[in-house]
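USER:
Class, as today's exercise, take the chain set out below, and explain how the chain folds.
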Amino acid sequence: MNSLQLQENLKKYTRIEECPIRNVLSRFSSKWAMLILCVLSENEATRFNIISKAIPDISPKVLTETLKALEADGLVKRKLYAEIPPRVEYSLTEVGQSLIPILNNLIKWALDNSAYMSKHRKK
């Protein structure tokens, strides 16, 4: 790679706010975000406790923080019902739904290649 190509790559990939792949990866780098999106994709509206039961090893605090982050990114919407006790449901936005086929492809790739990767992983 010549120095001009290297400089262009540095411009493209070093600033999170300007690099599309880093921007996306920074949002999904937690081990929970993609799992939560997959759970929400299976239902039109899902309550907090259902998500928590579907992913039993996530703490309530981390689930809350991750849902807030996904909501802030416009991937998840939160609907609060004026009831006593209050009822809150989470669902995917249209943009969140557009991500599901990509996640399904990633899941398929992982299933197809997990044995290969395990075999080649250094122990």
